[in-house]
Predict the 3D structure of the following.
Amino acid sequence: MPVDLPETPHLLLNPPTMAPASGYSNAVVCAPGRLVFLGGQTNLDAQGARPGETLTEQMDVALANVVEALAAAGGAPQHLVWMQIFVTDAAAYRSSTRELGAIYRRHLGKHYPAMALFEISGLYYPESQVELMCIAVVPEQA
């Protein structure tokens, strides 16, 4: 079930003069706040294990790590403004988009920051198939 998030304070832009955006935003205008840069998040869990044999299982762990790291900085998923997704097999990503979409929405709701997907030859840990790099802008507390 998708997480129910408050509305983002940022302006997500998808101009009608561009191809429709699906699962991402073409541009994000950030509201005032603190920049939060999240280190690359993979399928590394709190015990130091790397659970997940498949890309979808690993994405589930990586997205949970994004939410956890962001919460430690006082942020929430709706504060994400930028995400880069690095995968070792883009074809596997494309063939799993329905399942990956459900996993994404479970962690980040229907909030879609500016995003890009990159296929790379490998990650630092050879058993990892996905790594997420994110930037958030967390509004200052009133």
Q: What stands out?
A: The first strand starts at residue 11 and ends at 13. The first helix runs from residue 55 to 72.
